[in-house]
Amino acid sequence: MRFIHCADLHLDSPLRGLEQYEGAPAQEMRGATRRAFENIVDLAIERETDFVLIAGDVFDGDLQDFNAALFFANQLRRLNDAGIRVFIVRGNHDAVSKISKSVPLPANVHVFKANKPETVTIAALGVAIHGQSFATGAVTEDLAAAYPEVIPRILNIGLLHTALAGREGHEPYAPTTTERLVAKGYDYWALGHVHAREIVQKDPWIVFPGNTQGRHSRELGPKGCMVVEADEQGIRSVEFVETDVARWQHLSIDATDLVSLDDFQAAIQSAVRGAVHDAGDRVLALRLFVTGRTSLHGRLVTSPDGSRAEICAWLNEASGGMAWLEKLKLSIAAPLDLAALAEHDDPIGFLIRKLDELAADSTALATLASPTLSELSLKIPAELREHDSAFNPLSPELQAEALATARERLLAAISVEGAQ
């Protein structure tokens, strides 16, 4: 017996942040969630799987039109034509209460009810699949507690959308414990909701496959599904297979020993070529972190827009157009003896001491910055301020980042002045 376990397709979910960055392949990446699911269907047919499990969040919320639903139904028909059954539980994003538009699904598909757990048995395969959908977008009770007892002498699978006892970045929906899942006696728990791939344990198997396509810079690395092999003895193997078509990745460059722009370019392009090779045929969205104390500090910090433009060109050349710069984070320092300079009784010493004091005291920083930034904050839409600290000038995180940037620009100016 062979089956695929996937979750969190989030069809037509926007890949957030693309429009902010010049040169981002926004159009190519908008269809990434659909193409990732097409890859799952291709894989199911190629591997001749017996069935596919989808552990919630097929859609990203209430459907605004029929396009995503039609796409999904058409892909399921491909599985139907290949004789592959599909079992689905709805999660917080595609709960029964949230889907106001839908299209008929083919006969090979079973969507588990939301009012109570139910079991589907496939006698020919010797397997029982237990599941329950979300009735609303915020389920706070432990659904797993009411899942049916194990059926003896066949393979038992639990299909569940849950945060277990909690996972960072995810709402604590359908909370339950590993101990409760183990106590059910099932052979495999096919979980969804958590977008990071995680094998919670192997006896029995309790698995989050992660989402099928990364959607922003916090969903890093390969994304995909699990291909599971089983027989009458139980689970034989669980294999992760990549299905994403675009990938978000962080790269770090230590500039400490780099003395020229040519050295800097070579280091970046070497790292990019390695990332492109590892990603296969995928578009890469790269967040580049540059660290270290370097003589290039003044050149990079005093002209950040120029530095970004150069790096974008280097990325394009090294990747053959497959990688683009999502964000550049400079955490470099000037080749100055800051401790000695801070002791000087002069404007530079005072400036360095004051900057260090503000960096260590978020309250003092807010007192200084808030009067100026409050007016700017009012010009930013409320929904951006509330849901993304990167758009809220009054957030402590953004103020600390702005102070660090200002500090490095001032030190760069001091370094350049001292070199003349």
Automatic annotation (TrEMBL):
What InterPro entries does the entry give? Calcineurin-like_PHP, DNA_Repair-Maintenance_Comp, Metallo-depent_PP-like, Mre11_N, Pesterase_YhaO
| Keywords of the record | Hydrolase
Write down a Pfam family by its short name: Metallophos
Q: Name one GO molecular function term.
A: hydrolase activity
Q: Which residues form the Calcineurin-like phosphoesterase domain?
A: 1-196
Coiled-coil region(s) at which residues? none
- SUPFAM superfamilies the UniProt entry points to: Metallo-dependent phosphatases
Q: What is this protein called?
A: Metallophosphoesterase
